[in-house]
Amino acid sequence: MRRKKLSEDQALELIKTGEFSPDIITSKNKVVIILTQDWCPDWKNMREWLDSLDDSIDIDICELIYNKSEHFDNCLELKENKWKNSLIPYLRYYVNGILISESNYVSKEEFLKILNL
Which of 25, 66, 79, 90 is the most buried (most CB within 10 A)? Predict the structure, then answer.
């Protein structure tokens, strides 16, 4: 398992195109992108169990802490208006570059179940 933060350039690309770039969503067979805000209690809880995931799990987890981004307003608009999701955190699950599911806060067990892990 590899966790990484999305860059400002990647956030800008998201805003321009309305979707994450292929290099992000195909970086591994299974990719989860988390859009969140650093103050969110559900995110803090989720971050703890993400840290406990086995390193042998072949997955990329990409995080965009959008309240810390210079593109905050545009990220929020995209998330809430285009993707119709106003809750935090917001997760998008990709397999082979295809969006297979979306969720908000989930338990570790639910997360693994969505990804068939």
Answer: 66
